[in-house]
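LAB NOTEBOOK - FOLDING QUEUE
OPERATOR: T.R.
BATCH SIZE: 2
PURPOSE: Compare the predicted structure-token outputs for two unrelated chains run back to back under identical settings.
PRIORITY: normal
REVIEWER: second-year student, initials M.K.

ITEM 1
FIELD SEQUENCE / FIELD STRUCTURE:
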Amino acid sequence: MTGAGTTSAERGWFGHPRGLTILFLTNMWEQFSYYGMRAMLIYYMTKQLMLAQGNASFIYGIYTACAYFTPILGGMIADRYLGKRRAIIIGASVMAAGHFMMAFEPMFYLALATIALGNGLFLPTLPSQVGDLYRRDDPRRGWAFNVYYVGVNIGGFLAPLICGTIGELYGWHYGFGLAGIGMLAGLVIYLVGQRHIPAEPPRPLRSTTAAGAEKRGFDRQTILVLIGIGLAVTVFRSAYEQIGNTVALWADTSVDRRAGGFVIPVTWFQSLNPLFVMLMTPALLAYWSRRARAGHDQPPARRMALGAMIVAGAYLLLAGLAAIAGGGMTNWMWLAVFLVVYTVGELFILPTGLGLLARLAPLHLGATTVGVWFLMTFSGNLSAGLVGSLWSHMSHSVFFVLLAALAGVAGAMLWLLNGQTEQIDHARLQPSKSIDKFPNRINMS
């Protein structure tokens, strides 16, 4: 496919290449399988396997940590040895096998390890192919990750409702089997739609020593910027990840969930975030598209900084509500308002950040660089656990101010990095005029 996404024949959903729809659906079913299994895991260990709560929580933590650590290794393997397509096919197949192995109790630990290993190949490679669909200077390239991000949230929204309900009512093994079927569905979609995914480019030969030295120096600058972004995202996620931790505790104890004669289950609020992502993404894409056509497109790092500040504002809202309520209860509608603001900020920073990493990826290290994004998630989740441990040591309002401060610091860091990211991006676009000679090299930005 030459110049992917540049002709009307190649445009599909939201004016993007058809390949984006294939990657979107593949990702959606993978997320369905992952979140479906994860929703049942702690209950399966404590109720079916009769593990002690402490041991079960430890195993759960090790598994989720590995799920975000293996992608950096898998990305390197994909870039250096397997190639993206083979990495995705092998990773999806291994994960599907792991999910089906979960249906057999003696294979429990082997199943978890199998899923984590398959995830390492699959997770960083699929989003790196999103960038392959566009030329380096295509303004739709960044927005594509917002469309792709919707797939994460559709899968995350449906999986606990479907897999979790089947597992709880009819047996955990059936729920795990359903998660495996979801993974197979994603694999089949990817295999059938491969013709819409650009072929991987050949490795370029280094023609001169000077060119190689220039490239190495350029990559060093890129790596330093990526480290800076990683630190900022880690700080941000230490606040962002509280949504399923301390914010959930606050919702359970300090939110009046009565609506008429019905008490809203506290877990239902966890589904609002992915629901809002699905509802808001089309409107945000249309808004950003209008701004780009008017010549007011926002640089990715600056957009990420704005997203972090919006999340900081959401936590300041909670701090104010907690201070006003004192030891009393807050109406559930305010929690819904918080989730709306929180989700807007999330959409500004997280999918944009994933797209920025793919855009800044050094030559032939696309999957490795996207794997770094999941390493950031790993480190951010660890720091979020440390921050969450402070919940019982300070008032709720002070704690939420702390979260707002962390998100604000991350926003400031990203704002300061904007100049460097624009400089690298500009340098990448300079040779883009030669892309017509090598049209399949579009995935290297």
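ITEM 2
FIELD SEQUENCE / FIELD STRUCTURE:
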Amino acid sequence: MRRLLLSNDDGVHAPGLKALHDALLPHARLRVVAPDRDKSGASNSLTLSRPLSLTALDNSFYSVDGTPADCVYLGANGIWPERPDMVISGINHGANLGDDVLYSGTVAAAMEGRNLGMTAIAVSLVGRHHFETAGRVVASLVGAMDRLLLPPRSLLNVNVPDVPWQQIKGIRVTRLGYRGPAAEPVEIKDPRGRKRYWIAPQGSNADDGPDTDFAAVEAGFVSITPLQTDLTRHSARADVQDWLDAFT
């Protein structure tokens, strides 16, 4: 039976993680390792300044006092005798669309699994209600993963509309859209009158064309975007070389 490592960035007690576990339990052997608290926005950070604690919980999940990438690193390396076949990260409480993937701890957990040589999926619910819908989507994808050949260092980013299963219109393969700049930080004062700042909400969609993840979800479709960990803008290399040649 397939061995799956489950993680997230919303924390080990998040309902989305339990929904993911329950949806996949009939289909695989599961190991759940997740942050002990909400680590949304942690991106790919690793904890390098102190040792990490791995704590077994009563429900057989494990919590880590670190980041989502820490959790996958520990869950995949040497703590148990058998290495997982695949990493599934989620179900996130909210979308990870467009350039959200640069900040997302959900995507980072999947990316860490991919970096460690495992097949990886990040799954997000575009809302906070119909986690069972996203669970059914993931279970169907996992059941068919043996027939998918992805290039090396690739992963799947899945976003599911927050609707009942019967209202899902289908699945679309998409590209990432992108958002415009975020608003300025929100200044507040703490009880002692000192200035503090909240990070502002995301900017409005700047590219939500018909082939994007934004458009698919808005139309009621599950969005699946293949991601790569190579951030090189290969098409710009010649331009940069020409620029350098002009003054060196």
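REVIEWER COMMENT (ITEM 2): Helices lie at 15-24, 68-76, 105-115, 131-144, 213-218, 237-247.
FOLLOW-UP: none requested
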